[in-house]
């Protein structure tokens, strides 16, 4: 795999009439690839080359990444592909919410442009994914075993993105491991049973570290929360729910 930063140089040298051997020497791109580009320069120039924002200094769409990071920490995983050195990133989305599947696919396409987004069906859900050798570069939380069995911490560059686009991060976490539900409370007044309903947000994750990332993000946004159970975080105050409704809302 050649360095994508060499592609514009190779195309310019082709236009200027340099030999394939000389261009290959200068850029490290194979003669066969250069020959294919020479046959169809317009197609070669238009093609999007997959590259890594960590390895190749490609610009990273920070809002989309913050959202995708939330999805990954909740319902995502990175696995080794059959071909050595290649990984498949997948986000598991329940079929009950097709809109979330589309958002996951779009986020993957924006964060890693040029890769084909695939869908792998399972019982009651669809795994939205793409292949790349660079997924561990931009998701350093990847590692052996389940996330709740190992330390999960953000790299400094990830923390900067999450701090800047905290709402996107929270939205991704809730879209993966959270929900918006109606809470019902029964009161008896003057012998009559009265039911009250109000919306609440829940976030459930087995990892202490991921729950802390979630509650830290809520604190930065000024959203009140409480520990509902060992693995569950609840947001129930009216103003806090309204704040989440403004950028999260029910799953769809």
Automatic annotation (TrEMBL):
<dbReference type="InterPro" id="IPR009057">
    <property type="entry name" value="Homeodomain-like_sf"/>
</dbReference>
<dbReference type="GO" id="GO:0004519">
    <property type="term" value="F:endonuclease activity"/>
</dbReference>
<dbReference type="InterPro" id="IPR027434">
    <property type="entry name" value="Homing_endonucl"/>
</dbReference>
<dbReference type="InterPro" id="IPR004042">
    <property type="entry name" value="Intein_endonuc_central"/>
</dbReference>
<protein>
    <submittedName>
        <fullName>Helix-turn-helix domain-containing protein</fullName>
    </submittedName>
</protein>
<feature type="domain" description="DOD-type homing endonuclease">
    <location>
        <begin position="68"/>
        <end position="223"/>
    </location>
</feature>
<dbReference type="Pfam" id="PF13384">
    <property type="entry name" value="HTH_23"/>
</dbReference>
